[in-house]
Design goal:
Layout lengths: L17 H4 L19 E5 L2 E5 L10 H7 L2 H24 L5 E2 L6 H12 L8 E2 L2 H30 L5 E3 L4 E5 L2 E10 L5 E15 L5 E8 L5 E5 L2 E7 L11 H6 L3 E10 L4 E9 L5 E2 L1 E3 L3 E3 L5 E3 L7 E3 L17
Parallel strand pairs: 6-14
Antiparallel strand pairs: 1-2, 3-4, 5-7, 6-7, 7-11, 8-9, 8-10, 8-12, 12-13, 15-18, 16-17
């Protein structure tokens, strides 16, 4: 039913023919690529990936961002490498100055290395100590480096642990189903956090392919109007809805039209976590082939005998055929948050 997203002219947007490679025309919306560039970096936005060229993968001019953005394995590896490098540098200085360390074995790099480790950590066991002015100067410099290293390590670790993360579960597929007698684009989101989120705000944006008057493809962005873009309490589920009426740029869309225009949907959600006293946010991206027309979300709510409402987040993305208007069947967006 769905295939690769093509331009109206029938070419895949990710490829470019040789005749196009020398074009100097203005094309601000689409970046054609002939072959992979090893210097390009990949950027993730939710489930969406794109490449950037002309930027550095590791920008040492912004070490804070670099340290915070690294994955935990890379972060710990970088810290270990930096720690060993600093100790090796100071150990080499001690080793190159024979007699600078008292009670150290002659020409023992191991003694110099372990003394450097003790000095960097500002821990002295008393067996070895600087014996010359040069040794004292190197030890003093290493102590200062150790204090700075400890402060930076503590700060970065705290920042990485304290960053709030939104535990939101997005349905794998948006759906276009009848709601109040009108076709409606819906995306269901579940709150997987162990707390109730407050002041939830959602935005739905459409990125689609258009053709300019000069016949050039350009990607346009448009925010879609939601029936309800704000909820005071986000407890269990929240289904955001956009009606495909005469005011919608998606009016008359079907699966074939979505693929033809390469219509991509971005969902952004922001809410306040009362436990962390911080804003959390999440982004989800959907391709044209992800949209399910004529389907609706299966019921993921149940009620226990004592009246307790139960939300099964494992069924956030479960679908079923849209056989009737869900509003007439007693389902509403507000009910899901009760």
């Amino acid at each position: 039913m769905f295939g690769p997203s093509n331009t109206p002219g029938g070419r895949d947007l990710k490829t470019r023919s040789k005749s196009d490679s020398g074009s100097t025309g203005c094309n601000p919306g689409i970046a054609f690529e002939q072959e992979p560039d090893r210097t390009a970096i990949r950027v993730r936005l939710g489930s969406y990936e794109f490449e950037k060229k002309g930027v550095s993968r590791f920008d040492l001019r912004d070490p804070y961002r670099l340290a915070v953005a690294l994955t935990w394995p890379r972060f710990l590896t970088a810290l270990l490498a930096l720690y060993l490098s600093v100790n090796l540098v100071f150990a080499t200085l001690f080793w190159l100055a024979p007699g600078s360390l008292a009670n150290a074995h002659p020409n023992s790099f191991g003694d110099a290395l372990f003394f450097s480790i003790e000095t960097l950590a500002t821990v002295g066991y008393g067996e070895m100590y600087p014996a010359t002015s040069f040794g004292r100067a190197i030890a003093a410099a290493e102590i200062v480096c150790g204090l700075g290293f400890t402060a930076i390590l503590t700060g970065l670790t705290f920042v990485r642990f304290s960053r709030p993360r939104a535990k939101l579960v997005f349905a794998a597929n948006p759906v276009v189903a009848m709601h109040n007698g009108k076709p409606t684009l819906m995306v269901r989101i579940g709150n997987a956090a162990p707390a109730v989120l407050m002041d939830g705000t959602a935005k739905l944006n459409l990125f689609f392919l258009d053709i300019t008057s000069q016949g050039k493809p350009i990607r346009r962005a448009q925010e879609l109007r939601l029936e309800r873009e704000h909820i005071p309490l986000f407890t269990m589920f929240w289904t955001i809805m956009h009606v495909l009426d005469e005011r919608s740029p998606l009016q008359g869309y079907n699966a074939a039209r979505a693929i033809e225009t390469d219509a991509r949907v971005f969902v952004t959600v922001e809410a306040r976590d009362p436990t962390l006293l911080a804003l959390v946010h999440a982004v989800q991206y959907y391709r044209p082939k992800d949209i399910r027309f004529g389907m609706c979300y299966a019921d993921a709510m149940s009620t226990k005998e004592d009246g307790t409402r139960v939300a099964d987040l494992r069924r956030t993305g479960d679908l079923e055929p849209d056989v009737a208007d869900r509003q007439e069947a007693g389902w509403t967006e507000r009910e899901e948050n009760v």
